[in-house]
Write a structure and sequence with these properties.
Length: 743
């Protein structure tokens, strides 16, 4: 009997977002399962697709599958269920959700072109003799290869070995004495690091209690657990001991960390405890490397995966635990389709697979803490730092007063003194700026004109090195104008503070200090991030300046001062989460000091020192902050008291964008009227805060309401109607459910 299967095809289009039935040719009839990747005819093309179920013979003769790709199945039935949930909740195509789960791109084996001897050793030795007098460099190079036949070097590296250039190599290749050969390399990003085996600490009394609760959760109801623990309270050690339990029970674990803290330091803690069983997934892996790691998980060689967001899809079949470290981090939300939040996906996956979710943080997101208080999550706490280390005292400096007192430096007198003392004692300091893109803009002092990107309508950022302006969104660049393009005034001023300016200023004020900067500019090259950190760790750097990058996870015993240049930059963003972000950030940076045996100190500078986000960060008091913030959310009906959907329409032609956004607004209004649902609000249509990106204009509508299900239904129906009106069109409509940013 013929067998039929259902396939979703890899074409992200609304009208093909459903399974199509195909027939299996005889030779494949018993070789295909759910989760397999296949090649199918579609219209007059051949495209890839995924098998999502058994099919039935229909009225029309079904086309035949062309081929089945190796290494399948790519997902299990449970993961298919999860993909369906993601598509439904985040309103994206099923195939997009599936593709988020499976290794992407063509699987390539990494190759390099090495140089090897073309003749036998004996013949090569004779050639060396004949070359010695006429071409000594060539002879030397050849001898090197004769002596080191195991060295598989590319041309330039080989030439370096004998102090010559690759032209010597090519000369020998041309003569037929050497040849190039393509060899595959399996690269392990951590191959050069040997991990010291570590043993479990005997837990503190607080750790003992929470570990017991987690073990009960693993065996019992598996309600998600929120572990709230101050910085340095030993949360990671708790994760390690919980994972150990899971492994001994024959199950597997996923550890999600923010991309930025996926450092060798973090990896070492897990590899040190669990060795070869640990796999690492992060965004800098090539598609081939990712694929290797993915297969090793599937084959059961890996039992613990540490990774960023997408590691939540690791193809384990016996998942016991998902740890989410720094639960509040916004990098857990994917910004492209499917715009999922890894925490929500983790909770849903765990529910489907009978696993436990353990979220840890010092500053839970408002949403999660609200759920914990509601009893949807179980709340457990670590209130003390390990070894009785105190949390560092925090001083808030009012920068308005500094100016009044005649101090025009970017450092308050207090921070200045703090740095002096640190340098005197041979200790270290971290100076923190809490946002990069929003600081050093260039403005005319006469007319107020701000230099903006011609493509994106965002303020351009001043870069001291090239004395130029650059857009951080599309990389557009221009020179700083001598006169204002608006009013021709000569008074152009660089506003705000960037990491480069802090560095210049520190070098001026403390010429003997060794200062380094860590931001997107200094860490663009692979490995530079680690290099700066290890220099700081070894004491070659006295003061490290940085952005968010230095706020996370690092453990430096000699850091006794943390300075925040201005706390206000993130507080003044047009976003209802600004207060929450600021509190989280300040608490995070404050946690970077006093981790060793020496006491630490934190100095936060601000122009709005009375804001509750700053005041409660001073006291390290999350609960008071939560009470203030949740009252604000309640009064304004923002999440967690409502849900939101952000719909962005974009195109090169602004008139089209406005017309269609208005049309969508009308449709939504009439739908809501029909439903007689007063609790759904429509915000907009408005120009998006990022009004123009890469030459495309953007307008948006935000839906806000208590019931996310109803919001999605309304939105879905409205978009279908809009598409019918638009017909074939290249206007982009992007839907973001539970958006984390409105930009
Ligand atoms: P967190 O993840 O909460 O910031 P960590 O797990 O990194 O805290 O712990 C902080 C420091 O205390 C680390 O250096 C860790 O090795 C150490 N530590 C954790 N638990 C213990 C323990 N039970 N006994 C001794 N040292 C511990
Ligand atoms: Zn001007
Ligand atoms: Zn731009």
């Amino acid at each position: 009997m013929d067998r039929y299967i259902n396939v979703v095809v890899d074409l992200p289009l609304k009208n093909v977002d459903k399974p199509f039935t195909y027939k299996l040719p005889q030779r494949l009839s018993d070789k295909v399962v759910i989760g397999d990747k296949v090649l199918v005819p579609f219209g007059n093309r051949r495209i890839e697709g995924y098998v999502v179920g058994e099919g039935k013979k229909g009225d029309f003769e079904a086309k035949e599958i062309i081929k089945v790709f190796p290494f399948g199945p790519y997902f299990s039935k449970k993961m298919l269920d999860l993909a369906r949930w993601i598509s439904d909740y985040y309103q994206c195509y099923l195939v997009s959700s599936l593709k988020a789960m499976v290794p992407s791109g063509k699987v390539k084996v990494k190759k390099k072109r090495v140089v090897v001897l073309a003749q036998s050793i004996k013949e090569s030795k004779e050639i060396v003799e004949s070359l010695k007098s006429r071409a000594p460099k060539q002879a030397k190079l050849l001898s090197y290869l004769i002596d080191n036949p195991e060295d598989r070097l590319i041309s330039t590296k080989l030439a370096q070995k004998v102090n010559t250039t690759s032209s010597t190599v090519s000369a020998l290749v041309n003569k037929g004495f050497l040849e190039y050969r393509n060899e595959s390399v399996r690269r392990d990003p951590f191959a050069h690091i040997s991990f010291k085996k570590t043993e479990a600490f005997s837990p503190t009394s607080e750790q003992k209690i929470v570990i017991k609760e987690i073990i009960e959760g693993l065996k019992g109801d598996r309600k998600p657990i929120m572990l709230k623990g101050v910085t340095g309270s030993g949360k990671t050690e708790v994760y390690l001991q919980a994972i150990d339990r899971v492994l001994r029970g024959g199950r597997e674990a996923i550890v999600l960390v923010p991309e930025i803290s996926l450092t060798p330091q973090t990896v070492a803690r897990f590899k040190g405890r669990f060795g070869e069983k640990v796999g690492v997934l992060h965004s800098q892996l090539s598609s081939g490397e990712r694929f290797d790691e993915w297969r090793r998980i599937k084959e059961g060689k890996i039992k613990v995966v540490i990774g960023a967001r997408s590691a939540v899809f690791a193809p384990f079949n016996n998942l016991g635990l998902i740890v989410i470290d720094e639960e509040h981090e916004s990098t857990y939300k994917q910004e492209d389709h499917p715009k999922y939040h890894a925490r929500e996906v983790a909770v849903m996956r765990a529910k489907k697979e009978g696993a436990l979710v353990l979220m840890g943080t010092a500053t839970p997101s408002l949403e999660s803490y609200h759920r914990a208080k509601d009893g949807k999550y179980k709340l457990i706490e670590l209130t003390k730092r390990v070894k009785g280390r105190p949390l560092p005292p925090v001083e808030i400096v009012d920068m308005r007063e500094e100016l009044k007192e005649g101090n025009k430096l970017m450092f308050s007198r207090s921070l200045y003194r703090g740095i002096e003392q640190v340098l005197d004692k041979g200790e270290q300091a971290m100076i923190f700026l809490n946002r990069r893109g929003f600081s050093t803009f260039v403005q005319c002092r006469e007319c107020g004109h701000v230099m903006k990107c011609i493509n994106c309508d965002l303020s351009l950022k001043y870069h001291a090195q090239e004395r130029g302006l650059r857009c951080h969104y599309c990389d557009y660049q221009e020179k700083v104008p001598r006169i204002c393009p608006e009013c021709e005034s000569l008074y152009i001023k660089y506003f705000g503070v960037g990491t480069q300016k802090v560095e210049e200023s520190l070098n001026e004020e403390f010429p003997t200090a060794k200062v380094a900067r860590m931001d997107v500019d200094t860490t663009r090259r692979k490995g530079s991030y680690e290099r700066i950190l290890s220099k700081f760790k070894s004491g070659e750097i006295d003061i490290l300046i940085g952005t968010q990058m230095i706020a996370k996870g690092h453990d430096f015993a000699n850091v006794t001062l943390v300075g925040v240049v201005t706390a206000d930059t993130s507080l003044n963003l047009p976003d209802f989460r600004a207060g929450e972000r600021t509190f989280q950030l300040l608490t995070q940076v404050a946690g970077r000091t006093g981790r060793g045996d020496k006491l630490g100190k934190v100095i936060i500078q601000s122009y709005t020192p009375d804001h509750y986000s700053i005041q409660f960060a001073k006291d390290h008091n999350y609960d008071n902050f939560y009470e203030a913030e949740i009252a604000f959310r309640n009064a304004t009906a923002y999440p967690p008291f409502s849900s939101m959907i952000n719909i962005v329409i974009s195109h090169k032609d602004e008139a089209k964008v406005i017309k269609n956004t208005n049309k969508l607004g009308e449709i939504l209004r009439s739908k809501i009227l029909e439903m007689d649902s007063e609790e759904i609000m429509i915000l907009g249509p408005v120009q998006a805060p990022l009004a123009k990106v890469r030459r495309e204009f953007r307008w948006q509508i935000i839906l806000k309401g208590k019931d996310i299900g109803r919001l999605r239904d309304v939105n879905n129906e409205a978009l279908i109607e809009l598409k019918e009106i638009m017909g074939e069109s290249d206007i982009k409509v992007s839907v973001d459910v539970d958006p984390l940013t409105m930009l």
